[in-house]
Amino acid sequence: MPNTVGGWPDFKRGRLYRKGSEVAETKKRQPSVRLGQVALAHFRRWKAIDDRAREEFAKRTNETVTSFLCVVHWGGEPIRDIGKSFATALDYAGLPLRYTPHILRHTRVTWWVEAGLSLEEVADAAGMTTQMVEDVYWHRSPHFQKRAAEA
């Protein structure tokens, strides 16, 4: 469901809204992103699991359930710090602990640029300005200086 303080998935439109509707805009943009079919299938599966857990808890306690309402949670409660979870994910993936979510963001943007996406597509999906994409990543694009080299 739409959330005023945090992100939420929209299954009808296939989008993930990364910030709540009442969260102020900052320089750290958090645009909504389109979910691919595989990611959307996972989100739907996770929602079904959460719905069952919420129903089971409500039956067991006769209380209104306010847990399992965050996209990312542990035992139904929101995760405040991803440090330990991210370290575990790195371990499972066989990646060094020196990697950070920010490094993975750089990797994803680099792969989008190398795949030939336009400046605007990359900037929109990553929540960056086109100037940032051009300054930091565009030299990796197959389009970079192509026309000049062939002129």
Descriptive report:
The structure is a single chain. The chain has 151 residues and is mainly alpha-helical. Helices cover 46% and strands 8% of the residues. The chain contains six helices and five strands, in the order E-E-E-H-E-E-H-H-H-H-H. The chain has a three-stranded antiparallel β-sheet with strand order 1-2-3. Strands 4-5 form a two-stranded antiparallel sheet. Helix 4 packs across helix 5. The longest helix is centred in the N-terminal third of the chain and has 25 residues. The termini are far apart.
Give descriptors for this structure.
single chain; 151 residues; two-stranded antiparallel ribbon; 8% strand
Task: Give a quick rundown of the structure.
By secondary structure, the chain is mainly alpha-helical.
Strand-pairing-aware structural class: mainly alpha
User: How many strands, what sense, and barrel or not for the largest sheet?
Assistant: 3 strands, antiparallel
Helix amount, in percent? 40-55%
Unreliable stretches covering 5 or more consecutive residues = none
Mean pLDDT rating: 88
What is the N-to-C succession of helices and strands?
A: EEEHEEHHHHH
Number of strands: 5
Total number of helices: 6
Radius of gyration: 19 Å
